[in-house]
Amino acid sequence: MAFSIGETVRVRGETFVYKVLAMTGSMVTILIANPQPDGTQVYFSSHSLRTVDGLNLEKV
């Protein structure tokens, strides 16, 4: 699945929403989005910036 920079995505099986920062081949770098769809703010942590396989992402 193709993603665009700035697009909102979710890692399959997780509740947090991320923004796409970069793509390299099938790998996608994502950053936690604030605020989340329910209005909550998520504190930044070691999981806030991640690079994952694009097959594990779904568009929100």
Could you describe the 3D structure shown?
The protein has one domain. Helices cover 0% and strands 43% of the residues. Strands 4-3-2-1-5 form a 5-stranded antiparallel β-sheet, with no helix packed on it. It is mainly β. It has strands at 8-11, 17-24, 27-32, 49-53, 57-59. It has no helices and 5 strands.
Give a brief outline of the structure.
This protein has 60 residues and is mainly beta.
Q: Which key phrases capture this entry?
A:
60 residues; mainly beta; five-stranded antiparallel beta sheet; 5 strands; 0% helix
Cα separation of the termini: 13 Å
Domains, number: 1
The assigned structural class equals: mainly beta
Give the C-alpha Rg: 11 Å
Put simply, the count of helices is 0
- Biggest sheet features: 5 strands, antiparallel
Please tell me what the overall shape is. Answer: globular
How would the blueprint of this fold be written?
Elements: E1 8-11, E2 17-24, E3 27-32, E4 49-53, E5 57-59
Antiparallel strand pairs: 1-2, 1-5, 2-3, 3-4
